[in-house]
Each structure stands twice: as C-alpha cells, then as structure tokens.
Amino acid sequence: MSEPIIELRNVSKRxxxxxxxxxxxxxxxxxxxxxxxxxETVHAVDNVDLxxxxxxxxxxxxxxxxxxxxxxxxxxxxMPPSDGQILFKGRDIASLPPDAVKDAKLKVxxxxxxxxxxxxxxxxxxxxxxxxxxxxxxxxxxQFDSYLDGQLxxxxxxPAFKRRYPHQFSGGQRQRIxxxxxxxVQPEFLVCDEAVAALDVSIQAQILNLFMDLxxxxxxxxxxxxxxxxxxxxxxxxxxxxxxxxxxxxxxSEEIFGHPNHPYTQALLSEVPRIEARKRRFTAIKGxxxxxxxxxxxxxxHPRCPHAMPRCGIxxxxxxxxxxxxxxxxxxxx
Length: 334
Description:
Elements: E1 4-15, H1 21-32, E2 42-53, E3 57-61, H2 68-75, E4 83-88, E5 91-92, H3 98-107, E6 108-111, H4 125-135, H5 144-154, H6 171-183, E7 189-193, H7 201-218, E8 221-226, H8 229-235, E9 238-243, E10 246-252, H9 253-258, H10 263-270, E11 320-323, E12 326-328
Parallel strand pairs: 3-8, 3-9, 6-7, 7-8
Antiparallel strand pairs: 1-2, 1-4, 4-5, 9-10, 10-12, 11-12
C-alpha cells in the first residue's frame, strides 16, 4: 500500500442555526423557566475515520441525506470540520502555515454533481478554466492560450470552443469543462461528487472512461461519491458504505459486492437490478432514513434493521476488521 494522501481522524460536521442577540436572549429566558429550546443541530457527519492512499479510487456510497457530499466538501477544503483532523500527506491542514494550506487546497479539487449550476454563466470557458492557474502563477508568461488548450484537450473538448459560454454546451460537455477546471491547477486528488448522476447513460460511460484515463495518465487519486452502485463497482478499488453520517462498512470492491456484511449494505445490494435476477421480486429497505437532527441512539440503522436486538438501540457498534481489509460496524459480528 502506498503512502496516504488524505486521512480523516474522528471527523464530524454539525450544522446549527445562527441567532441574533434578541433570539439568544429569548432562548436564554426560556431555558431559565424550564422550557428547554428544541435542538436544531444537524449531525451531518459523525466521527468518520478514512484513509485514501496515493493512486487509489475509493467509492463512497449511501442514500441521499447520509452526509457523503458534506464529507466530500470537507476533504476538498470547502468547509471545515466541526471536530477531528484532516491530514494531507500526513500533515494536519488546520495547523499548516498559510502558504502550505493554499498548496494543499490546490492539490485537492472537487468536481460537482450539477454541470449547469457549477459553472458561472457569465464567464467564457477560457475564463472558467484558466482563471485559477493564472492567479496562482502556474502559467508561464505568454503561454496562456497553449496551456488552456492543453487542459481542454485533456478533458476531451475542442479548444475552438474556449470563447463560448456554458449555456452553449450540452450537459456532458459542461461536465468536461468542470473537469478541465479542476485539472488546470494540477491536482493530485479529485473529489467527484455524483459527477455523472445528472448525465445520460451513454454520456456517463464516456465521462467514467475519461476518469480512468486521467487516473492512468496523471496518477490521480479519487474519492468517488455516488448512490449508483453499478458505477462504483466499475470504478472503485475500495468501497465505503455510509449511513446517517457514519461509515458502516469498508472493503475492497470485490469483497463488498461479493460478501457484504452489514445489513444496510446487504439491503442496498439487494435493490440493485441485475439481469440474472430479473424475476426476483423487488423489496425496498423498510422504513425511512431518520432525521439527522435527531439520529437514533446506538446503531443508527437499528430502526430499519431486520436483525436488530436490544443492544443495537443502546450501544453504537465500532467499525472493526472482520476479515483482511474488510471492516464492518455491526453487533452481529461480536
């Protein structure tokens, strides 16, 4: 295993409302009279440990609202964690000097889900892709056009389009512009947040093949966030399963899809349509995902788990190794 490029240690993220002076006074008076205000804190990510090695593709899977996009934004440096540490090449980003923080953030870039909303409609492609490397001094004097053309070709775009605006492109082309923008600052790590979810199936295949080519040519490392298990199985070396802010299972891709351990992982995989099981009756996961404002005690999945026992509602299971390279957080393993 090569050196870790990104490490998360007990990382959590909570979102709460902000109050002005009058609202804070009202809440304080209410608490003095025994009327404890209702908590409005969203527990988006809960004590996550994660290591991604250089050159690895790690897939992050879970239902909508499980916190995977928030986790990706923290890895990309877009938002800070509420608790825990994020390390880049073994160094805590929060403790680095400003120049080192800037360098670390440039080396980790994000590709967003919506190829329409993620591009500034008032800027031409040349400005969208070329602005950041020019500001950070990555383009030698007099070589802007050649540098820009190279980035566009690498993402599969014709440089002749660089004077156009985003609305003049299709969804797949816009996503390629987003990829070119991320690559233009010469990153080592890409966070892909549902990067193909908004695209047609045929275009999805083209973008996925582009990601694999870029990995080979540039030795890139990926955190690939998706709810599509078929895409994750095709692309990832290792897969993490996330539920309500917690990682519940982690294993190599073949192990996850061949021998899922956690009941939530088993339920997710049972919902994947497959040709060999086309006559099988479809059954969805029972119940709804609980609110992250009031997550259940103990194992977060226990209200929906068919194997739940009393211990599951009291004690949160630890994510521990059950086989070489395979970790699962379930009391059934104890």
